[in-house]
Design a protein that fits this description.
The chain is of the alpha/beta class. The chain has helices at 21-33, 61-71, 88-101, 116-120, 131-150, 187-196, 207-223, 242-254, 258-267, 280-285, 298-311, 324-343; strands spanning 38-40, 76-82, 106-111, 154-157, 162-166, 179-183, 199-202, 229-238, 293-296, 316-320. Strands 1, 2, 3, 6, 7, 8, 9 and 10 form an eight-stranded parallel β-sheet that branches. Strands 4-5 form a two-stranded antiparallel sheet. Helix 6 (187-196) packs across helix 7 and helix 11 packs across helix 12 (324-343). It is globular and about 60 Å long.
Length: 345
Amino acid sequence: MPIANGGWILSETAPKIDGSYEYNRKAALLAEEIGLDFIMSMAKFRGYGGVTQHWNTSLDSLVLMSALAAQTSRVKVWTTFHTMLQNPAVAAKMIATLDQVSHGRAGLNVVPGSYKGEFEQMGAWPEGMGHDERYDLATEWLRAVKALWSEPSVTMKGKYFHLDDCESYPKPIQKPRPFIVAAGMSERGMRFSVEETDAIFIGGRDDAEMRAVSLKAKSMAKAAGRRLRTYAMQILIIEETDEAAQALVEHIRQGFDEQAFYGMMRSYGMIDAEIGKENAMTSRARSGFMAPFTAGSPATVCEQISAKIENADLDGLMLIFPDYEGGLRKLSQSVLPALRARFSG
């Protein structure tokens, strides 16, 4: 969901996305109308600045998804929680409420925290807590949430959270519980998803790397006696011809907001001397696109999406658009029918 201004493109020349409720409401209703499976919003608390003031304005994830749940009737609604910011007992009740508002369509995206600059502003970045420890905290947090969803009372004395005869009602409508997804391709991050979630968002610098990550995650899950779905993010640029789509890509690249990009790097806690350590997302963002993109005619986009799903052994894609209304309508009219025919079996 385009909950923050600028969407997922760092460019002055990209179509304008204001991140408003009305923009998101229209996108959600279109997603439902054309039969997409889910809508999901990130949780963001500080933007990247630059000429475009990228992501400086963003809606609250849970409040937005609750409002959109009341506006829709079929599409699943997934919200995001940062485990370092919310007490698990508070989060458990919030998500159970969203499940009731949505009549059993709520989902949870769990983020252990990776945006140092974003969290420091509110005194919520624990100095000295390393990458793996943040996943240890997230594991304890999520196990507490799951217990509160299913048990009459929970007493837990963990390293990070203490619950004492803690009750949480109402329980979620969904059985056994709402769908849980996370992202993270480090060894510890992947193990967290394998052990605690239903799906993982993965990435890679190319389809071959993405396939390797997908197969590794599924292999780890199988060894643990669990099933783990793999999803990837994909920006779709659909035009009448390949040439027109590539022209739009180049137009967007020409407006690359370099200052916003450096704001992103600072948010991740990467100073200029450390840029060589950047991940696939920040590396890709140097072109203006913050996620992998597919650009072309409807036939080209359909073929590339199909190949990505099949070659990387993905269970689905989370779709992003430079312009959501136009992009969703083009997807529905000229790409989805062919995709559904291809994967209907």
